[in-house]
Model the fold of this input.
Amino acid sequence: MALDSRWLLLIHQIPPRPSYLRAKIGKRLAALGAVAVKSSVYVLPRSDQALEDFQWVRREIVAGRGDASVLEASFVEGLQDPTVEGLFVAAREQDYEALGREAHRLQALVARLAKRPTDARQQAAAGLARLRKRLAQVAAIDFFSAPGREPVEGLLSAIEAALHPQQPRPAAPPPVELRGRTWVTRSGVQVDRIASAWLIRRCVDPEAAFKLVAGHDYVPEPGELRFDMFEGEYTHEGDSCTFEVLLGRFGLRQPALSWLGEIVHDIDLKDERYGRPETAGLERLLTGIALRHADDDARLREGAQALESIYESFRRQGGA
Done:
């Protein structure tokens, strides 16, 4: 029975001497985003780049008088694909949690900079640049879109806004100009982008089409509007997530929407500002949707159904 090989395995034996070789190879594999499924057995999602990366590691091991093999693999019994994917997600979540702790410390420092000299702000800006570089490195090996990335990006955007306050954005164009527009955001959608897309189609542009793109440096085509992405027309402003920005820019003041905005804020920025009791449940639900669906359209579609339900619940509680 032929099986599609979804994974690459590196199986190695590293000699005890030189002692530094094992640590060196471990760091190299961690930098590639590989995870261990057994002792001395590491896995990556199969791709041409992953094959080349594993081949270089193998040569390094062999040059150090060790032994290594690179194989294409499918898990038939024992480990299953979702379990292996979970190993990658867990590894990246640890990376994002570490970045989040550093970002919170930097955010607290920036909040105290109002009366500090310019060189202190320059040091904070340098710290922000280092965190952005590290985030980019982790994101490059985040093969299965771990949910921790989005909160860290929100924190860094808030720090950037605090260090470099911008002039208020011009008022949004009248809704009649927004019907049937193409709204662009980053692929691998998570909480804020899922919620913002639902809000756009429900309350701003019922005929909206969504375009998912890779990276932060996308150049929009004429007539496109970007949301929740770098330099987007609608994205984080200060310590407000994109969902909150959309509420403010379009004058959406229904209590039910405001309550949803508070939940999305706390999930996205993880600062527990509002502490609504529904936050943990919606976070778990949207995280589960992202884990079940690699396809962004499916995430947006199923996420919209969940948000519509909680919105209706709030509306009937008096949040109309």
Q: What stands out?
A: The beta strands are 7-13, 35-38, 41-45, 67-73, 182-186, 209-213, 225-226. Confidence is low (pLDDT under 50) at residues 170-176. The radius of gyration is 22 Å. The longest strand covers residues 7-13.
